[in-house]
Every structure is written in C-alpha cells, then in structure tokens.
Amino acid sequence: MAVVVGLSALGAGLSGCDDPSGESGFAGLAESGGQAEASAFLQPKPGTRLVFPDDWGPHPQHRIEWWYFTANLTTPEGRPLGVQWTQFRQALQPRPAAKAPPSPATWPMDSAWMAHGAISFNGDHWFEEKVARGDIGHAGASADPFRVWLDDWELAPISESDAWHLQVQGDNWDYDLTLSNTGNITAHGDGGFSAKSSSGEGSMYFSLAHLNVTGTVTVAGRTQAVSGKGWFDREWSSQFLKAGQQGWDWFGLHLEDGQKLMAFRLREGDSTFSSGSWVNADGDVESLQEDDLTLSPTAWKESARGRVPVVWQLRVSGRGVDLRVKASPGEHWNAGLVSYWESPVAVSGSHDGKGYMELTGYADQAP
Amino acid sequence: MLIRAFLSHYQRHPFQLAALVLMIVLATMLWTGVTVLTDQARSSLAQNEETVAARAHIVRTDSQPVGVEDFVRLRKTGVCVAPWLEVKRPAPEGQVIGVDPMSMACFGRSAPIQDAASLDGTPFMDIGDALRVSQEGYDSQLYLIAPRDDIELPQGYALRAFSLAPPTGELADSFLLNLDALSLLVLLITGLLIRSVYRLGLVQREASFELLYRFGVLPRQIRQLLVLELVVLTAVGVPPGLWLGASLAEALGTGFGQALGSLFDLTLYAESFGSLPWRAAVVMVALVLTVCLLEWVFPQPRQPAMVSAYARLGGGALLLAGALGVVLATELVWVFAGTALVFAGVGLLTPPLLAAVEERRSVRSGATASVADPLRRWRARELSVMFRQLALPVVALQFSIAAVLAVHALVTTFESTFEQWLGQRLAADFYIEVPQGGDSATAARRLNALEGLGTWHLVAHGKAQVRPEEAGTGADPLTADLMALTPITDLVSDWALLSSAERSWRELASGAVMVNEQLARRHDVEVGSPLELTIAGTRMRTNVVGIYADYGRPVAEVLLHADTLPAAFTPRSESFSVNKGELSRDVIHDRLADTWGAPDLQVRDNASIRELASQIFDQTFLLTRAISALTLVLAAVALLIMIWVFFTTRVWYFRLLGVWGLQGHQVRRQLRLLSVRLTLTITAAALPLGIWLTWVLVNRINPLAFGWSLPMDLYPVFWLELGLMAGAAGLLVAHLMRRQLERDANGERP
Known about the structure:
The complex is a heterodimer.
Chain A: H1 7-15, H2 35-38, E1 64-74, E2 80-91, E3 111-121, E4 124-133, E5 139-142, E6 147-150, E7 153-157, E8 164-169, E9 174-181, E10 186-187, E11 193-195, E12 202-219, E13 222-237, E14 245-255, E15 260-268, E16 271-279, E17 285-288, E18 293-303, E19 306-316, E20 321-327, E21 333-335, E22 339-349, E23 353-359
Antiparallel strand pairs in A: 1-2, 1-13, 2-3, 3-4, 5-6, 6-7, 7-8, 8-9, 9-12, 10-12, 11-12, 12-13, 14-15, 14-23, 15-16, 16-17, 18-19, 19-20, 20-22, 21-22, 22-23
Chain B: H1 2-6, H2 8-12, H3 14-52, E1 55-60, H4 68-76, E2 82-88, E3 96-99, E4 124-126, H5 127-134, E5 139-146, E6 157-162, H6 169-214, H7 219-264, H8 278-297, H9 309-328, H10 332-367, H11 374-389, H12 391-425, E7 430-433, H13 440-448, E8 456-468, E9 478-486, H14 490-493, E10 499-500, H15 504-509, E11 513-516, H16 517-522, E12 530-535, E13 538-548, E14 557-561, E15 573-578, H17 585-596, E16 603-605, H18 606-648, H19 651-659, H20 664-706, H21 716-743
Parallel strand pairs in B: 3-4, 9-14, 11-13
Antiparallel strand pairs in B: 1-5, 1-6, 2-3, 2-5, 7-15, 7-16, 8-9, 8-12, 8-15, 10-13, 11-14, 12-13
Helix pairs in contact in B: 3-6, 3-7, 3-8, 3-18, 6-8, 6-12, 6-18, 7-8, 7-18, 9-10, 10-11, 10-12, 10-20, 11-20, 12-18, 12-20, 13-17, 18-21, 20-21
InterPro entries (chain A): AttH-like_dom_sf, AttH_dom
Protein name (chain A): Carotenoid 1,2-hydratase
Pfam family, one (chain A): CrtC
C-alpha cells in the first residue's frame, strides 16, 4: 500500500493550479459515489485486472500512484539498517491513453512528482524529499523498460540482467542497491483490486515481496556493504481517502519461514477497515478480509511530532498467526510536506521476522 | 469601606483614572504596533533580500540559449537548478518572472519565493503561465538559475553571476539595526509616559493617604492596595492596547498598504496577524509594573529632582560624557551607551532649562514696567511652574517627538539613498555580459563604429591586492574586488562621490584609483592617500582620487581605468553598459551577437531591473512609513491626553484669572496662548534631540556596524508639520479646558 503523502498539497499548494480533487482528504479515497467517480479520472473497480508490462509504468488517466520500496538490511557487523524509497505521481489533469503528453517546452503543469528517500540506522533516521513538475522530463516513469526517476534518484533495470539498480543521494547520506526478484508478483485483493473501504472504494495494488537486496549505504560518514530482504509495491487509484478517514497503519512483513504478510487498516473515527494478503513460501497468495485480520496497537510512544503506536499485535484467524510487531528504537518520521512514520520493525510471537511499518495521520496530534 | 475610601480620589476625579487607563492602553498600543510592524518590516526585508539576492545562472559553453532540455539534463545529474523566465511586458502590467517553485525546493531558504501565494504575477508567476504571457507577443528570456556560484557542473555548462539588482544585504541589515534602536527608544518613551501619569495621580492622592493613615490604616496596607490597584489597571489596560496595536498595525501594514497598492501598483508582503503578539504583552506588563512600582523604590519628592540644581549639574555632565562617548566610541556598544547618557542628560536638563527661560521672560516682563503685560508675565510664570512640576511628561513628549523625527529622517534617507544608488549602478540602458571566449576589444571597436549609439563603457572584473602605503611595507595586503573601466563617460562621471579630488575622473583616466567607502573607512584611506596595488603579480603605486558609496556588500573595492591594468591581467568577467542613443536594442544586440558569434546574447534591460528592484523595495518602505505614521499619531494622542491631564491640575489657578476681572473670552484666549506655547516649546526642544539622534543613527551606528555611512538629510517641512500638529494639539487642549472650567465652577485648590 505505502504512502501517498500530501500529493494533493503538492499539486494544489506548490503549483497554484486547480486541483480537481478538491479537498477530498489526505491521500485517500473520495466518498462512494462522490466527485471522483463523476470526474474524468479513471477509477479502478472490482474486476479491474492488472496488465503487464503497462502497469509498471505511469497511469495518466488515474489521479494518483506510487512506486514504493523498503528493505531490511544488515551491515557486515550484523546491525540492522532500514532503507525506504518512494516515488509518487499526482495528476492535476487526467490524460486519456490516446492523447500525447504535453510538450516539455510549454512547462506544463498537468502532473507533479515527489520522491522520498530514508535510512533508519542505530536509532537515527535520515530523510529527504524531492519534488518536480511532470511531463518536463526530469521526473517520470516508464513501463518497458521499467524505470522510475526524479532528478538523479533512479530505479532502473541493470542491463542484461533481471535485477534493478536503485540509486538515491541525500544530504550526507546515500544508498546504491541492487534488487533481485526471486518470487512472483503478488496481486492483492481481487486480482489486484484492493478494497479500501466497506463501501467499495479501492486501488490497484501489487507487490514484489521476495526481493534480495545487496549494495552499499553511506550514512554517518561511513560507507558500508549491506544485504537483506526487500519489498516493492505498486499502487494507483483516483479516489483519495474517504472523508472522515484519518489515516492508515500498514505492515509489510518477512517471516522467517519464508512466508510474507501484508496487512493494513484505515482509521475512521472509532471504526477501522482492515485488509491484507498472506503469501506462503511458494508464492501462493490468500487475500485476507476484515474478519480474518486483527491489528491492535499495544504500546504508544510520545514522539516529537505526535503520539504513535510503536508496538502492535497482528492476528490472522484460522492460521494460528499471532504476531508482536515492534518498531525499531528511535523516531522515524518522514518529515516532508506531510509527516508520516516509516520504520523497520521486528516481529516475534507465533513467527519471528522483520519488515516495515507505515503510519499516517498521527503527526502533530496532541498526546 | 477601606477600599471605598482608598478609591475616593478617583470618584472625585474619574477623568484621572480614565486618563491612566487610557495611557496604559495607548502605550501598549504604541509598543505593540511598533513591535508588529518592525517584525513585519524585518520579514518583508528578508523576503525582498531573498528575491533580489545574487545567485548564479548556468549558460551553455557553446553560446547556444539554454532550454528545457538543458534544465532536465542538469537536474538529472543532480545539479540544483531552476528555470527563470523573464517576460518583458511593458507597463502598466509590467514585467513578469516565470518560476517553477518545485524545482526551487533545493534552494532552501535562499529560494526567491517561499510559497505559492507569491505566484500572483507581481512579478512572479508559474512558468507555464508566464510562457503564455510571453506568447502574447512580448520578448522573453529563459535563465537557469542556481543557488550558489560554486557548484559543480557537467561538461558543456558554465556558471555566471546572476542577480535582479545590486546586492542590498548590508543596506537591509543597517535598516533593521536602526529600527531596533528606535523600538527601544519607543519602549523608553512609553515607560516615561505611563510613569508620569501615574505619578501625577499619586501626588494628588497623598492627602487622602495621610487621612487613611490617621484613621489607622498602616502604610504597608496602603502600598498593598496600590499594588492591587496597579495590577487591576494593567489587566484592564494591556489587553485592549494589545488588540488595538495589532489591529492598527494590521490596518497600516495591510489595509493602508493595499490602498496604496491599488493606487501605485504595489503590494506588501503582509503577514497574517493570526494571534496577538504575546511577546509585546509580556514586555508591556513588565514595563507598567516596573515604572509604576519604581515610585516606592525611588520615591520622588514633590519638587521633582529633575529640576534641582544638582539635576542640572548632573544632566550637563551626562550630556557631555554621552556626547563625547558617541563621537569617540570605536565600538557599537559604547555608541549605544553614549546615546543613553545623552538622553538621560537631556531629560534632566530640559525641564529646568525651559523653566529658567520662562522665568527670565517673566522677570523681563516685570522689569520693563512701561510695556509690562501682566498676563504675559503670568503666562511665563505659569509655564515655568509647569516645566518644573511636569518635568517627566515634558521629557517623555520631547523624546517621542524626537523619535518621530528620527524615524521620518531614517525612512526618507534610506529610500532616497536606495533610489539614488540604484540609479547610479544601473545608469545605462542595457547591461550585456561578454560571453565566454568573447573578444571585448573587438566588440568595443565595433560599438565605437556604431553611429548614433549613446555612451557606453566596458567593465572588467577581477581581484587586486591593496596595501595603503601609510600602513607600512610590513602590513598584510588586503584582497579587494577590482573594477576596471573604459572609457570614462557620463555613465560614471555623474556619480555622487563621497569625497573626491579636483578633476577626479580625469585623474582616474591617468592612472589614479577610486575606492569604495568600506575600504576607505576600514583602512583609513582618504582622497590623496597613496596606495600600493598588486594586480596579476604586477606591483604598482597610485593614489586615491575619489571615494564612492557602495551600500550592498562588505568587501573592499578598487575602481581604475582599464589602461592602468598590467598586460598580464585576465578578467574574471567583462560586461558592457550601453546607452542605446538613437539606435534600437536589436541593432546593438545584433552587432555584438555577430561580433561574438553568439546569436542568443543576453541583453539585460537596466530600466526594468531598476523598476523591479524599486517595486520590491517600495513594499518595505511602505511598512516603515506605516511605523512612522503610527508613532506620529500616537505621540499626538499622548501629547493631547498628557497636557489635558496636567491642565486639570491647574484649574484653580486659571479660575483666578476670572477673579482678577478677566472676561470669559479673555480667559479662554490666555488658555489658548498657554497651551499652544507649551506644546510648541516642547516640540522645539525635541528638534535638536531628533536631529542629533538621526545623526547618530546614520553617521555613527552605521559606520561602526557596516563600514559606511548614509547621507545625513534634514527635512524642515516635516518639522513644520510637527509644529502644526503640536499647535493643533494645544488648541484642542485649550478647548477642552474651557469646557472643564465652565463645568467645574468650583475648581478644587491643589
């Protein structure tokens, strides 16, 4: 699932252009039957299917999409190190598939891009944000060959190989990683349509949950070789958070027996909407519905930007899965246009493991 | 019962209570307003600075124009660069600048614009919109700007200096320093005003306190009640003052600014006043409690110490010491200390001096019996008594008028200096940078051959080592910026030099040099001083024939004729400043572009640069005018209230005029003469202090803080305006007094 942080703010705020989405909430879904359906943007629905290789690339007919990667890495001394990279696209105008993109020479403002890069290590968190207007050329994505870039940050295929190369440079930190996929594409929900509310809003969502990651990370003035497991998400939609939904809690977990768990819940007042996917070691996917999943915070942290749940209990009924998921020590705020929490987690309980946790809608709340 | 007896004075004199509360309200309003406006001016200046700050722009080394593909190429190699599209749309709409706020994110705080709200077309707008404006038939020029001039670039690109206007950082810093100094003065004035009104009430209540004491109320209890009363008065007076001050500042800074904006096509960088400035509230509460409670720590006798002989002696000593300190100080802190001493000295000297002058007039009137006018004598004696008894408010008013004078002079001086300096630096019609590899000598020859072309000059920039010969050969040379000119034309010969030798520009053409004020002040260089210059390894001796003002930068600069340069000198950059004369811009552009083989030669229009810079800085001057207006209005209101309060204490004496046989209209005339003379005398006494304060700000504080001084200009018309205002306040007081005399037939004997 991953974040769609403040792209509406990015589009409407920075550009001064009209955002056709209006004020329909934070990076989420519009109300069922609301303006999004009436707008010219294309909206995924149950039954919409994934199409490859096109779905690796951008979807100009949809309002919002993102490419997301996290990795739980280990240094030569055995210390855990977390890495995140996300690139977002926010359309301000829908563009039909048949229509050519505007000429860069006109400095168009039909879409905006934003990229986030972060490292979590030894209780510290480094984060950087980049933004760009779309259709100019210094930010974009292509399906075949698959490439995503913004300025000098880039995820691109390594020639004559199935692996990808991810290169990100921050202020006094950087990482240079090779990503090798060893599993199948995990289509979430109904063949890739992932419901985000009980009233039927949703997004197209698939993952690569079996990534081997190697490379180097430079942080705190030191370059280290790293290796570990990675998780890659692709998601797009045209509906934002439903009015009233305050944010979400998302988990992508690598369990030690080779199984994977993706689970999220969207918060709306006292109620929540949960969903997820269970991926067994062979790559078979089982979609988890609300009744199958329990996600409960069990401990909170008073942080600099708000009170956040840092320890969780995740239960999957019928599988005997009862996990305790705990965030790494330290504060893991991605403090960009909109602040959200992005931290590596350690998993214990019925299964051991590691993974990543993303929490939105908690920043600057009174403890 | 006790509280009722304690407050009985205010029951008999409700106006005094109202005046005290009103003074707290007004003082809070003044301080809050000045604080808010000063903060706003600071923020506005900071934004202006960012907007016109010097940056760099990136050019292609093959002299081709930069385009969107260059922007993309540079961004993809990690270079922080942003597009900047200047569209030369003529007035009244004026030039617009198209920017891409997203690519400016990497500029951080040095980004020319900080939020989308600035993209309103004055002058910035989104680059896509600006491009559409240019397609209406206006010339446009795309630049790729970078935040610094030391970034690494891929092959095929080079950095060039880029700015909207000459750098103004030091001018802005100086302005803010002076504004801070004036804010402190405003705080002092508000303290004096409150203390004077409070003390006036206390003196009148002494009799009732004595009565309470006789009835068994302990002095300690009376003091406790007074503290309680003060806390209540502060709680009642400060919040509305705070609100009024913030509202007034908002009205002046926004409403007033917007009104002017619609008239003069200016807009303010107005900040939101979402919340009351609590910092100002804390300062005011502390000030009110401190100045009023000081009365117990240092109780004043009925006859104010300020009019005693010791006070005169002490005042004279303080004035002398302070003035010497200000003149001789070599550090800023001593200038401030000296200024404080001068104010203290003036505060101690003014009341007794004014009283003595009136006393002498009174004696002189009596001595010349044949022409004696007993009423003139009465007025002089009455004024003499007032100056003695009302020493504190008289000084407060004197200080506030002096501050108004200084604010006015400061704002006007800064404004005219900025305009004049901008005009001097952007005298020519066009500014054309010689492209990399371009031959400036050939271009100069071809410009000379252009019939109908106006005056022009070529400037070569570089570095030089400078050593004043008086510093001795052992002294370390100083690295200065070098500006080499040729030919000398009226583009520079009309410069207003700070000091110069006879025929200085001719001397310059013969090998002499001019230096900027920074170099002159910091290294004691004067006109006629010999200098040793080392340029490109060649040492030469020359002398200084002129010193010019240079407000923008802290660095030393040397100006010489290009013929003086040694053959080994290689300029860092070269540029032509050209007056078009009878030719069009295109003819000049084409001639130079052809000379250098650079079809996309950039010709910067100095008039539009000047217009843009003036437009941006006018926003700040608008705010400072608002500060001046606020101070003036509140000083006038304070003046009115104070004199009215003081006159009420003299009602009994004024009634005696009737007892002596004067008709009602004659009494009223005497009141008018008395009050107008009082207000005019205080205004006249404030003039020298205001002028002196202005001199300290521009001639002492600036040189010590920044190495250069501002011209000291006086504005007698404004003095006249102040005098008229004081006269009007005097007439108004006389009118109010007349009503009070009529209403209160049995004026209480003090």
